[in-house]
Amino acid sequence: MSVMLCRLVAYLSVSLHALISPCQLHPQPCGILAQIGHTIRLGAVLPSHQPSRVRAALNRALVHARNWPHAPLLPYNLSLEVVWARAAHADPESVFRCVCQDVVVRGVSAVLAFPQSQHELVQVEFISAFLEIPFISIIEEGEALQTQNRFHLQMLTHVPASGLAELLLSVLVRAGWQGGAAVMCPGGGDTGVLEHLHQQGRAGLNGSRWHLWETLDLSSHWASWSSEEEANNNNNNQFILHKKPEDVSQEVTDKEQEMSELLSQLMNRTPSALHSSVVVFGSDPECVSLVLRGATRLGHTLWVLGLPLNPDALSALGSPKGLLAYGQTERRPLSSYIGDALQLVGRAVSDASVVRPDLALIQNMVNCFDKPNKHELLSSGHYLSRFLSNMSFEGLTGHVTVHPSISIVSTTHGFHVWSLQRDALGQPSWATVAEWHSGHLEMDKKSIWPDLMKHELDQETTVKPGRRWHHGFPVSGHRLRVVTLVEHPFVFTRKADEDGRCPAGQLCLDPRTNNSDILNRLFTDLEQKNSSSLPGDMIKCCYGYCVDLLEKLAEDMGFDFELYIVGDGKYGAWKNGQWTGLVGDLLSGAADMAVTSFSINSARSKVMDFTSPFFSTSLAILVRSKDTAAPIGAFMWPLHWSMWVGIFITLHITALFLTLYEWKSPFGMTPHGRNRVRVFSYSSALNLCYAVLFGRTVASKTPKCWTGRFLMNLWAIFCLLVLSSYTANLAAVMVGEKIFEEVSGIHDAKLQHPSLGFRFGTVHESSAEDYMKKSFPEVHEYMRHFNQPTTPQGVATLKTDPPQLDAFIMDKALLDYEVSIDAECKLLTVGKPFAIEGYGIGLPQHSPLTRNFSEVVNGYKSDGFMDLLHDKWYRATPCGKRSFAVTETLQMGIQHFSGLFVLLCVGVVCSLLTLLSEHTFYSFILPHLHNQHRLKYWLHTSQKIHRALNTVCDEKKTETVNKNTNIPLCLSEGCQLHCLPSADPSISSSTYNRWNDGSPEATSSELKDANHKRVHFDLGSERGIKSPDAFMEGPDVGIKRSDEAMCDLLVPDLGTRRLDGGIKKLLRSQRGIRGLVGSPPSQLCANGDAASGLSLVLLPPACPASSRSSLWEGELQEIEGKIEEFRGNLRAALARRAELQRNLEKERERQRQTERDSSCLSISTDMNRRR
């Protein structure tokens, strides 16, 4: 039992330890993650040469690291962020400032560097040692430093010269050769391999030594042969390609004879000449081939090529049997090495964060001049470098491990060793005899050295970068000379910086010649950084679609290139017995390839090779728009004429329905609708509809019925949408209509039957001209007079004022770009495309590079790289859809608004005619209508006309109001505050009819009076009522009003127009005159005028006799109710007065009592004193 208990306790302790230990190792991991933002930063210092290539590889590696298929690269689901920077110059101060100000301040865990020379590598060594931050240098050329700086790790993307020397020594020792000689061909740049081979051979390998006895340098001999050949060519004034075959064969034989003599002299100076080995170095294929052909005449000597080489690059015929060569099995891209570097840092951070996440994740080195004291606080760089020094894993480049004694990250580099043998048919063939991996040579067990089976190599190999590429050698590691032609957006040019560099793009030359000697001298000066001897306008920076494609090809296929612009600026055509332009440079050997918008056609394909097309296009026709002058009615263009007609018809129909709804509604603004003060007529509806349509803010009558209001809101919504559409299209339409030439295509009559009126052309010696020449010779004969040297010049002829061309025919890819960047939006491609073609990379005929380049280009098209290039360089928004506005184009002048000025002048003239018509109407037609018994009711149409026909007041013949019949409207006889004069109910309706002009006799009698005067009432407001302050003063004053005062009161035009605030309240409140006067409401002029309220006081009721009693009863009941209300108020006031009086009496009584008490007290006090 005790044993089981002990085991249980042991298991529990182990479990608790497993659970508690991680917590102890991770103090506040959540707080640390929050502090760093769940991101690990890695710095990257880009090189000064080809930074875009390195940055692209860095981006690809970063994407691959984020999508790592295995376990997460970083712990706690942290993300990796790369902070990149680039030094302005290569001097130590600039590099140090760049690292400190752009990288270290961001709190990076490690820094990636890409040194391009031994000098830059030493700078990184010192910076890492000073900052104590891990640096990983990815070296593409040169040797690594043999140091033990744990803050600086070096990763080689190639096998250095020391490694190649070790491989050669392993092969020579394995073959049993103890010594040999070396033959140096010019342009090798490989003396480092020979020096390391000599040193390592003396030191020995596995107890075996190899001695370098003699060295033959052929540079001087080759230079003399080349000078003699050039002299012969100059004397004959022809190229060697034009010589007779027998002459060329004789020259080659002489060279081979002389080379054999030199090799024989070399072997005679070498001990054991028949059993010596010869290592041939050099990158000049002609020199190497000549040496190998001469070696066939010697004895049993082992010949070895000293540099990595592809055996397919050499012709097997004529080479010595047993020739050994070696090459790299697979050359991995730069992104693979960067990916392994990222994985190296990620694994180190993951391991370090298990023990001390605070040091592994939080960087305490963010200031180059404020480093933490390593004796007091351990820096993050110190802590992380411990884990970096012990990393080992399988990466993208094979097995990756950090060397234990020196700061080098070892990667896997594999090589094959081949031997030239004879197959069963006696034909020469290459066979694999050994493989070399990580310093170990492994023999092929299936064969016996050196007689092995035929083995074909499918992988590309690399050589050390040297001279220009020649036919027969692999392109990898060599330099190609590329010719181009400026065509936007495929190739752009701009001036280089003052120091002759290109921050973006590739450095290129504009030599304006195709002479190979001149080009060689120019590129030599440029390579030696002797650019001061070159003219300033010759050095340019080239960039664009094709330059990006060329950079991608160079990176993936491992070659370098020299770029220059074709001298004559032509694509190439057969002219004067030879080819010009790009084709001529390829045929003469001045260029190895041509990369631009190079169209593939049958004529060029007969003399040169093209890769598979990387861009498909066709021919198109470019025309320019014609700006037309804006006509007088341009302001109406935003809307069609049918829309204008519909708007105004809808406006009048809406006004008609508004009037009908208002007059048919019991709540409308009409004389029959709740006795409105104002009347809503058809003219009021038109005024309202026009005001809403044009958005003018003027006083207008609005409908009162709900139906009318709903219709008015619908009309407002309609006007809002119409006005918004008009405003939106106004600026775009009024800038002037653009009319383009109507060309349906290449078969249009304007092109097929040209006349002197229509001018069109294309570019000289282009594929477009070749197509027109073959397909339409008559058209070509006409248009060749208008052809232009380049595409930009052809487009410029369309944009001149006046234009020099009416149409321009060229590749659609080029024209579409010109249309997209046209700021004035005057260009457009019209018609159907024709002559479908493609752009390809031009190469010399039967070039061995054609197939390889075609396969790579097809791969780019399948993986989407070409689509990315298209989006990059054709992302300019088409002119018709661009989001920005060109202010100069959208400026509108007076010519655009001339119609509005004319419309305003017409409106002024029409208003004068309208004024004349009004005077004519009121002077001639209105008196005639007064005599008529019909057409007297115009309220539904116009209130002004109705007033003029139905309202007349004669100042001199106004009837006198009988003031003796006026009775006071006071509530009591003694009231002096509310005394108003009132009309006697006994007044006959004839008086009212006189004011309403209801009696034809009264109307005719007054019209006959010569001194009559028409009166116009203001029915829209209550300002027309004169203030009745005189009536409010008392009954006596009100009774003394004469008939002139009465007319002055009722007719506002004859008196003042100020309405007192007291009478306004009296007319608007329920306690107004109508409540105080015992007469029913009446109408004045049958229009519900504001003066009708006052007419209740002065005029008798206008109702029929049958309804007077009921109206008076209602008024009587209302007055009695008010009297009861007044009585209640009076009772409350009397009660309050009684209460106040009682309180006042009590207060007075208390005061009197107090006075009596005080007097009694004083008397008693006096009496006490006397006693």
TrEMBL record:
Keyword field contains Calcium: yes
Boundaries of every Ionotropic glutamate receptor L-glutamate and glycine-binding domain copy: 535-588
Disulfide-bond pairs as recorded: C825-C879
Keywords assigned by UniProt, alphabetized: Calcium, Cell membrane, Disulfide bond, Glycoprotein, Ion channel, Ion transport, Ligand-gated ion channel, Magnesium, Membrane, Postsynaptic cell membrane, Receptor, Signal, Synapse, Transmembrane, Transmembrane helix, Transport
Main location: membrane
Domain spans labelled Ionotropic glutamate receptor C-terminal: 520-876
Positions marked as site (Interaction with the cone snail toxin Con-ikot-ikot): K773
Polar residues bias locations: 1159-1171
Membrane-traversing stretches: 641-663, 675-694, 714-735, 897-916
Composition bias type Basic and acidic residues, residue spans: 1145-1158
Signal peptide stretch: 1-25
One Pfam family per UniProt: Lig_chan
Family (UniProt): Belongs to the glutamate-gated ion channel (TC 1.A.10.1) family.
Protein's UniProt name: Glutamate receptor
Organism the protein comes from: Ictalurus punctatus
